[in-house]
Structure formats: C-alpha cells, structure tokens
Amino acid sequence: MFVISPLTKSRTVIVNEISNDERRDYYRINDTVGFSCSICKSEKEIPTLEEFLAEIPDEFQLINYLNRIDSDNASLLHTIQEVSPDISRYLKIINAKIDALSRHMVTVGSMEEIKFEKITLSAGGLSLINDENIALGTILRTRMVLYPSCSGILTYGKVVRSFAIPNTEPAQYDTALQYVLIKESDRDVLVRHVLQLQSNQLRQKK
C-alpha cells in the first residue's frame, strides 16, 4: 500500500467544467469495460488541451468516428430497408466488415495496457475499487474501451473520493474520479452508452 501526494502546483486543466447540479443529472451505471490508468506524478505529465487532443490514440478516434456515422445514418438505413431490402442487407454486410476491422484495431492496439475492470461509469466521472490509497486531488490518466461498441475514450481525472472499504484483506479502496480532460464528443458517447445499458436492463426486467 502506498499514498500518492496530490499535485501542489496550480495549473488550469479543467475543460468544459460542469456544475455539481449538472453532474447529478448524469446517469450512472455499473459496467465492465476495458480499462487502464496511470498516476500523473508531476505537473509535466498533465497535458494542455492541444496536447491532450493529439494524445488520443488513432484507433480510438477511428472507431468513435465510425460509430458516429452509424448513429447519424440509422434513419437513412431504415428508409433504404423499406424501399429496397436487398440493398439494405448488402450495406449491413459491408458495415459489419468495417466494424470487425475497426474493433480488431482497437483490441490489438490496447491489449497490452487495457484489462477488464468493473467500474461505476458516468459522463462526469467514474469510480472503481482498487488496492491503492490515492490522495485527493491526484490526477490519473485513464483509457477505457466500452463494449459492445468498442468506443475508446481517453481522460484525465482528479481523485475526489478515496476511502478504505471495511473488512477487506488485503485492503481495498473506493476511489472516485472527476474528469478534468475529456473530449466533448467522448462525453456524449458515455451518455449514450449509459442510457443504452440502462434501457437494456429495463427490458430484461420485464
């Protein structure tokens, strides 16, 4: 067990900060995602906005772009299905091939760093159980892959909660992060992902 001290110098890293009231409006859900994180031990490891955007992996940007195209074209594909089912089936096959290739790229590119992790996920932050007591204010760099879409999301988050879970051996800690750097389109991806999971859970309960 070790304690990481929070960053002591001030530096503006908040991007599109949301208020507490707005944050409470975001839905939260327990999910299993591909996940990795590392601690920023100095101010030099926290990027500027321009550096952050350049740091987002190419495979993350590709799969997220393709997912946005699918979402934007959903109504068009529905119209094509009504007019010409054969063309619709052909387009779905082509789309499936592209999806398979892009998801393979995300999986291969992230395999060495990202492992499955159970977390509580929202568009404003996340929480997880770990075996390290991380001091409040510490900045963590996180990489996530959401399933089944394989959307990839890079964030920097500030530790806003960390406490020991009673009766755990070895000791485990409930740690919560608030995003301080996240691409706004990726925040939208998180909102849609959480809402979709909640919708699926409601259907399963019926």
Description:
The structure is a single chain. The protein has about 210 residues and is an alpha+beta fold. The protein is about 40% helix and about 30% strand. The protein has helices spanning about 20-25, 50-55, 60-70, 75-85, 85-110, 185-205; strands at about 5, 30-40, 115-120, 125-130, 135, 140-145, 150-165, 175-180. The chain has a six-stranded antiparallel β-barrel. It has a two-stranded parallel sheet with strand order 1-5. Strand 6 and strand 7 (about 150-165) form a beta hairpin. Helix 3 (about 60-70) runs antiparallel to helix 5 and helix 4 (about 75-85) packs antiparallel against helix 5 (about 85-110).
Largest beta sheet, briefly?
Answer: 6 strands, antiparallel, barrel
* Strand order in the sheet with the most strands: 2-3-4-8-7-6
Total count of strands = 8
Per DSSP, the total helix count is 6
Low-confidence stretches: 1-18
Roughly how many Å apart are the termini? Answer: 44 Å
Shape: globular
Q: How big a fraction of the residues is strand?
A: 25-35%
What share of residues is helical? 40-55%
- What is the gyration radius calculated from CA atoms? 19 Å
Based on helices, strands and strand pairing, what is the structural class? alpha+beta
- Could you tell me the mean pLDDT? 80
